[in-house]
Amino acid sequence: MVRKPVYVTPQGLARLRQELAELTQVQRPDLVERLHEAKEGSDWMDNTEYRLVEDELAFVEGRIQELEDMLSAARLIEPDEDETTVNIGDTAFIQANGDVEQYTIVGVAEADPAAGLISNESPLARALLQHKVGDEVAVKAPGGTFYVRIVAVKCSMDCDDDEDS
Question: Lower Cβ count inside 10 Å, N or C end of the chain?
Answer without folding.
Answer: N
